Amino acid sequence: MKAREIEKGVYWVGAIDWDLRNFHGYLTQRGSTYNAYLIVDEKITLVDSVKSYLAEEMFQRISSIIDPSKIDYIVCNHVEMDHSGAIPMVVEKNPNVKVFASPKGVSGLKAHYKANWNFQEVKSGDEINLGSDKIQFLLTPMVHWPDNMIGYMPGKKILFSNDAFGQHLASSERFDDEYPLDIVMEEARKYYANIVLPYSSQVRKALEDAAKLDIKIIANSHGIIWRKHIPEIIKEYSDWSSNTVAKKALIVYDTMWGSTAKIADAIYDAFERKGYRIYKYNLQQNHISDIMTEVLSAEYICVGSPTLNKSLLPSVAAFLTYMQGLSPKNRKTIIFGSYGWAQQNIKDLEMYMNNCEFEIKHKINVNYIPDELQLEQIRKEVFEVL
After folding, report:
1. Lowest mean pLDDT among 111-115, 175-179, 217-221
2. Would residue 287 show up in a list of annotated catalytic residues for this protein?
3. Which of 11, 34, 37, 191 is catalytic?
4. Which position among 41, 57, 144, 187 bears the catalytic label?
5. Which domains does the chain have, with CATH numbers?
6. Quick check: is 222 catalytic?
7. Which of the 8 DSSP states describes residue 224?
8. Is 265 among the catalytic positions?
9. Which of 223, 321, 296, 226 is nearest to 20 (CA)?
C-alpha cells in the first residue's frame, strides 16, 4: 500500500472500502474511500483517519513515507468513526501526539473513545504552524454534525473540506481528471441528497466563506479528490443548497393489487403531456437512497399508497419518513392511492406532506380498481393542475 502525493509534501494515505454497500441506510453500490492526508513538514501532520478495520491499510501508506510514530499533530475535522476510527491507534504509537479539533469535536472524541488525549481546541480563525506552511481553521457546524470544521493550507492552496464535496466511491484513481466525471458527479449528488441536504442553509454559509479562498485542490473525506473540476462541483453545491429545481417529476409508490400502479401510470401520462422529465419508482424495486438522488432537483414529488390496516404500506411510510428527515424545500406534490374499506391512506399521505411543507396540488383516491373512465379523469385533472 503506497501513499499518493497530491501536492508537494502532502500525501493521500487513506483506505479504500471496496465492499461497502450500506452507509447509515444509504446504498453505496460503488463502495467508498476514507481519505486521510499526511503533511510532511517540520511538524508531521495527519488530517483525519479511516474506519478502524482499515487502519492497517492507512498505516502501510503512512509507512511508505515516514514512521507513523513520528506524527506530531492529528487534525480531526469530524468525530464520526469513518473519520476518527483509527486515531486511537495513532495515539497508541505516539502518546504525545497533539489532537486538534473543534470544541464540539474534542467533547465528541472524549465521548466516543473515553480518552484523555493531548487535545487542542480550535475555533474559526485559528491556525497551526507546520513549518513552511500552516493550516487555518473554519468551523462549519451542522455540515453535517455540530463538531464539523474544515482546514485550509494557504501555501499549497489545499482545502481539507471534510464531508463537503465527497462521494461514496471506491477507486484506485484519486483525482477528478482520472475518473469518469459523470460518475463522480452522480455519486456527489447522491451523497448530498442523502447526507447533506438537511443542512443546506449551513452549506450556503460555508460556500460563502470558501469563496474567499484561493483553492487549487479540494481534499475531501470520501471519494475522488477535486483539482480540475472545482468550479463545476462548487456550482452544483450552490444549486443543491439553494433547492434549485428542474421541470422534473418523481412518481413514488407501492401497490398491493395493481390499482395504485394504474393511477401512477395515469399521473405519468399527464406529466408527459406537459413536457416534464419523469422518474417513476415502485418502492418494491427501488431503494429510498437512490430515489432521494432524484428528489434533489425535482419540482414535483408525487407519492401513492393503498390503505393497509388503516395506514400506508410500510415501504411508503419508510420513504416518507426518510425524505422528511432530509427536508427538501419548496416542492409540490400530488398524493394518490386506492382503498377498499378505509380511506386513511390519503389522510396519512397528507400528514407527511404537510410535515414536509410541500404544496399539495391534487389528491386522488379510488375505491378498489380504477376503470378506464376513472383513469382518463385522473389524467385530465392532473393535467389541469400542472
Report:
1. 111-115
2. no
3. 191
4. 144
5. 4-241 (3.60.15.10), 249-385 (3.40.50.360)
6. yes
7. P
8. no
9. 223
pLDDT one-digit tens code per residue, 80-96: 999 999 999 999 999 99
Instruction: Determine whether 24 is an active site residue.
Output: yes
Question: What distance in Å separates the CA atoms of residue 69 and residue 130, rounded to the nearest whole number?
Answer: 17
Please report where in the chains the cell 390503505 appears, as a residue: 307
Contacts of 290 (CB under 8 A, 6+ apart): 27, 190
Distance CA 151, CA 336 (A): 48
> Which entry of 222, 237, 294, 352 is annotated as an active-site residue?
222
269 is catalytic: no
User: How crowded is residue 342: how many other Cβ atoms within 10 Å of its Cβ?
Assistant: 12
pLDDT band at 235 (very low <50, low <70, confident <90, very high): very high
348 is catalytic: no
Strands 298-304, 246-253: pairing is parallel
Cell of 315: 415501504
* Whether residue 199 lies in the annotated active site: no
The x, y and z cell numbers of residue 386, run together, are: 400542472
pLDDT of 320 higher than 90: yes
- 369's CB contacts (< 8 A; 6+ apart) are 257, 258, 259, 262, 338
Find how far residue 150's CA is from the centre of its chain: 16
Q: Is 362 a catalytic residue?
A: no
> Dihedral sign, CA of 98, 103, 104, 110?
positive
| Res 76 pLDDT > 90 | yes
